[in-house]
Recover the amino acids of this structure.
């Protein structure tokens, strides 16, 4: 079946921060006089709250046993992430080019407030035919239900849709388990290439290589 739609992950696929997330988290924690917490602990709490409206439940878990206001920390972290956020080189023109041929989708794990604010900062609120945040859904990636909602929003079949993302479990294996082909975005320090993906693309080469991969599919 010919490709009708291409959908993307957001963080570390289409957009990156110019400061690493661990540093941004540490800065936000200091700003609200919160005790230090590791990036790993944050990610564990985040994974348990993929359908939350905001990061407050994430930080409630992270700050358990303290009197720090999780809403204040969520705001401080969101501000720092957004200030450091920018598109991967070339992807904006790539999206414009792809939109002439395919329906474009986005499926990003995370709370509604945080992820929608990233799209506004990037100027991408209207960039996609369907932009889904798992905070609005009943399940996050890699759950098949999240990908089924994406397909419904794009009005496409799984066999005619390609998903592009960096995370092996959430993006590559989640998409393939739901019947989509997956293209894995790789980068130094990121996950190893997974054989479930139909192609692997270095993030810096995504804008140049992805259109060719799709046209040859």
């Amino acid at each position: 079946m010919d490709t009708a739609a291409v959908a993307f992950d957001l963080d570390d696929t289409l957009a990156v921060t110019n400061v690493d997330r661990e540093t941004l988290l540490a800065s936000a924690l200091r700003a609200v006089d919160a005790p230090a917490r590791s990036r790993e602990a944050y990610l564990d709490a985040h994974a348990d709250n993929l359908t939350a409206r905001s990061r407050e439940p994430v930080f409630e878990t992270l700050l358990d046993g303290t009197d720090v206001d999780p809403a204040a920390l969520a705001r401080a972290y969101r501000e720092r992430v957004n200030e450091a956020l920018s598109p991967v080189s070339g992807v904006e023109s790539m999206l414009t080019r792809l939109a002439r041929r395919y329906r474009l989708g986005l499926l990003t794990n995370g709370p509604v407030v945080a992820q929608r604010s990233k799209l506004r900062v990037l100027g991408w609120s209207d960039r996609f035919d369907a932009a889904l945040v798992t905070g609005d859904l009943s399940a996050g990636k890699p759950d098949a239900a999240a990908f089924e909602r994406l397909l419904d929003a794009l009005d496409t079949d799984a066999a005619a849709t390609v998903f592009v993302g960096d995370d092996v479990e959430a993006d590559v294996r989640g998409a393939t388990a739901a019947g989509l082909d997956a293209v894995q975005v790789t980068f130094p320090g990121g996950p190893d290439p997974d054989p479930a993906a139909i192609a692997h693309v270095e993030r810096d080469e995504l804008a140049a290589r992805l259109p060719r991969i799709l046209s040859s599919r």
